Amino acid sequence: MELDASQECAGGVTAAEGFTAGGVYCGIRKTKKDIAIVRSSKPAVVAGVFTLNKVVAAPLLVDKIQLKKSNVCSAVVINSGNANACTGEHGLNDAWTMVQTAADALHLPREQVMVSSTGVIGQYLPMENIVNGINDLSTKLCKEGNKDAAEAIMTTDVFSKECAMRFSLDSSVITVGGMAKGSGMIAPNMATMLAFVTTDAAITPAALQSALRTANGHSFNRITVDGDMSTNDMLLVLANGLAQNDEIQEHTPAFDQFVNALEYVLIKLAKMIARDGEGATKFVEILVNGARTEDEAAQAARSVANSNLVKTALHGADANWGRILCAVGYSGIDFDPANVSIGFNDLPVLKPNYEIVLDEEKAKAVLSRENIIVQIDLHQGSAEARFWTCDLTKEYIHINASYRS
User: Fold this and answer.
1) In terms of Cα–Cα distance, which of 352, 353, 341, 309 is closest to 327?
2) In which band, very low, low, confident or very high, does the pLDDT at 158 lie, cut at 50, 70 and 90?
3) Which of 232, 131, 244, 128 is nearest to 182 (CA)?
4) Number of alpha carbons in the 13 Å side-chain half-sphere of residue 401
5) DSSP track, 149-165
6) Fold of 283-401
7) CATH topology for the 5-273 domain
8) What pLDDT is stored for residue 402 in this prediction?
9) Which residues are catalytic?
10) CB neighbourhood size of 140 (10 A)
11) Whole-model pTM over 0.70
């Protein structure tokens, strides 16, 4: 199934049937909206992936317990401005209080509420403000609340991130929509990165988790801003079945269609995060082809995308291809450097046998654009992979030198 922008629709996380949302200011942050809720009118099958960082924030510990109890979720409550990470038993109790408060306010079983936080590490949540915020917000959830919710989960993000699309599945129309936040501390391995996706598809729990793992591997796990893996990375998908399609099972054509649609939304959101990298002025795609396997291509692309030397060179429009080849060299894959070719936006700069064809003037013009593709051909197979990142600027240092102030 080929998907394109013509199938995109408005609504973000509330585009699918039966979902409402909202976001308000409750006093965690100085002025901006800082608490959001996403609600399904019908209990939804839920799947999730979480950070692999050994330091795990309290909300993720709670959600993993919730997922073990039940694969059903009716609401997610999210706060920004405070990560509730490295807060011990106190923070764990606060996360459970958020769950219980939302459950009471929305008249839901406690097992059907999940929680998420993002912001500064090592500080306790202002629970009185949060409890009041949840109670206030619970009365304001609506179909048009997607934009407020997307704004309320932002931290250093410059813009909110939403995407939704529809596709036909047999006689049903399925909608997949979502929102994400992330700008710095981005190097997912499952950036600070949170994403919440909703769909009205009917799908088995096993199929939803499998679809999420596949789509996440080709989207959020292929972006990086600064190489820092967060304590709070989380991606949840809720499927409430209101499209009334035949329940999607694994290893079927319907499952493949759903994976493609989910992947489309996740890639769009992931690219927005990379584009919004803290202080970034350029969006960069790293394309590695000619690899023996997709995993090796991804490994090489990740190494280049994480290289501060590559990203600073791109910021300065410096066609320093040696930094790129060097990054592939320490990626850990086996290849012959003499076979590699490198280009920028179809402009060749290096051909096999170290033949330098760099035109400095043309390369500088290409690298001065806002969108750059770094093309690396290993010439040893037919597999390829893409990674998305941004340039590294002085503004990144400025933002992170005063993050808590």
Assistant:
1) 309
2) confident
3) 232
4) 7
5) HHHHT-SS-SS-EEEEE
6) Ubiquitin-like (UB roll) (3.10.20)
7) L-amino peptidase D-ALA esterase/amidase (3.60.70)
8) 57
9) 192
10) 14
11) yes
